[in-house]
Structure formats: C-alpha cells, structure tokens
Specification:
Strand content: 25-35%
Distance between the termini: 33 Å
Number of helices: 10
Largest sheet: 6 strands, mixed
Bound molecules: heptadecanoic acid
Shape: globular
Structural class: alpha/beta
Radius of gyration: 18 Å
Order of helices and strands: EEEEHEHEHEHHEHHEEHEHEHE
Strand order of the largest sheet: 10-9-8-13-11-12
C-alpha cells in the first residue's frame, strides 16, 4: 500500500521526514512576472521584486491538473489545502480527487479543507504523517484528522494588509488603518476560514502579548506550537520565549514563510498555529 501526503505551498513545507510528500505550489503574479511557490523560489528576491513593482499583483491557486499529478501513483493520498474561504485551491483539489478515484477506483484520496493556512496547515500535515507511521487505515486517518482539526487554531500579527486589500480579501477600511504609525492587526482564522482582524495594537511587544493572551483565551494549555514569519525571526523568537515563560516544555518550531504566506502576511508578519 503506497501512502502519500499532499498540501499546497501555503503549508510552508518542502518535505516531511519518512513520508512521501508533495507540495503543490500556488503562484504569485506581478504583471508578466510569475513566481511559482516551489522549493526553488527565492522568496527574498520575490519580495524585493514586488516592492519595486508598481502595477497590480495577485495570486493564483494550483489547477486540478497540478493536484492530480501531485497524487502520483499512490494508493492512498491524504492531505489538506488552504482555506476555501479565501481561495479556489480546495475546490481544485476536490475535483482532482474525484477524477483520480474515477480513473483508479481502487485508490483513495482525502483532502481536508483546512479553513486555515500556514502553520496550522503544517500541524495537520505533521499529524497525517504520525497517523501513517502508526499504521492507520484510510478511514481511521480521515476520522482522526477531522477531530484533530477541531483542536487547532491559527492566529496572526500583521503589519500590513495591503495585499489582502488589493485582492479583495479584506475590507479596505480595515487595511487602511493597519500599517499606520506602527499599528498591527492581531486576529485569527475564523470558523469560516476567513481573515478575522480582532485587535489593533501599537508596537510589536504589545502585539505579541495580545497574541499570547488570545491563544490562552482560545484554550491553549501548552500544546504544540508552530510559528512562521515573513522575515521577522526576532519577533518569532521573542514569541517562543514568551510562551516558554509559562509553558517551559512546549514543543515550538519556527520557520520562514514561503512565497504565498510571505506575500499575504507581508514583511514583519507572524503566523501562529497551535493545539488546544
Ligand atoms: O487562491 C489564491 O490565489 C490564494 C489566496 C490566498 C489568500 C489567503 C492567504 C493567507 C496567507 C496570511 C495571514 C493569515 C490569514 C488567515 C486566514 C485564514 C497568510
């Protein structure tokens, strides 16, 4: 039985230890320039390129064919996509799964709509890998991941929402305030998988304190934490320290956002996925 895990590139993952994994890239577009969010993308160069670009920029999700070919020849494919509340990515994955199972009736695919992205998606993928290593069946994996997804959340602290606003994914009035005089927005992925800006705070230190309070309010008690940042390692490290001051043995990992998350979270932004 050949198992495989797939996720789109908003999970910020290139590979997973000991499990067959494929990342399906989204694309960031600036005029005729298109940046494919795969392992070879130079994210720093992309951000610098975008800074100098005056025209409209945007993103595109993978096609049905992109997902289909990521499934390879696996007997059992499991995975997750960025929220259907903000992207067509999940729909493409769903259609690809349907086609794959029609072409190969003995094979099975389950792609979860994460209603989230970034480090929460990462937690889901890590959990899939655990299930596969533990020898779970397809049905067991599907049932277990759906319960697990109810116990994970995504919070963010962002310095700018320009790209969200440009692409019609957030109210422009909210976007206008953020970015003024060091105002950051702290919020979460809503239950519908949309951006829920909850607090506006001035300064990074306050933003991190707010984030931690919010985590605890949502039920965090020292479970796994995954932090991803857009070139703000300092904030990510400070945040990890803040968590460890209350939960010294907390399993925390920090990573750099890949292209898609860097584009939307914008420089300085940090994303926090955690278990309750
Ligand atoms: O289909 C496409 O073109 C992709 C659109 C993706 C839009 C959302 C990207 C979010 C990236 C930013 C902060 C966290 C927001 C959480 C909301 C669920 C990460």
């Amino acid at each position: 039985m050949k198992f495989k895990i797939v996720a789109d590139s908003s999970a910020n993952l290139d590979c997973i230890n000991g499990v067959d994994f494929t990342s399906v890239p989204l694309t960031i577009q600036a005029g005729s320039n298109s940046y494919v969010d795969d392992a070879s993308l130079d994210v720093r160069a992309m951000l610098d390129g975008l800074k100098n670009y005056e025209g409209k920029t945007g993103t595109a999700c993978p096609s049905v064919g992109n997902w289909y070919s990521a499934f390879g020849d696996a007997d059992i494919v499991v995975g997750a996509s960025i929220t259907s509340g903000l992207s067509g990515c999940f729909n493409a994955a769903r259609l690809a799964a349907k086609e794959y199972m029609k072409d190969h009736p003995e094979r099975k695919v389950f792609i979860l709509d994460s209603l989230s992205t970034g480090p929460e998606l990462q937690l889901l993928i890590e959990k899939y890998a655990e299930y596969i290593k533990a020898g779970f069946s397809f049905d067991q994996i599907r049932g277990s991941i759906m319960s697990y997804a109810k116990k994970t959340h995504l919070l963010f602290s962002l310095e700018r929402l320009e790209n969200f606003a440009k692409n019609g994914r957030v109210n422009p009035a909210v976007a206008k305030v953020v970015g003024l005089l060091g105002i950051r927005v702290v919020g979460r992925a809503s239950d519908e998988g949309t951006l829920e800006p909850t607090f506006k705070v001035r300064g990074e230190r306050k933003a991190l304190t707010k984030l931690f309070d919010y985590m605890k309010e949502l039920g965090f008690q020292g479970g796994k934490v995954r932090i991803s940042h857009s070139y703000n390692e300092n904030a990510a490290n400070n945040f990890a320290e803040l968590i460890r001051s209350t939960f010294p043995n907390c399993d925390i990992q920090i990573r750099l956002n890949r292209g898609l998350c860097c584009y939307y979270a914008e420089e300085g932004g940090i994303l926090v996925g955690f278990e309750i």
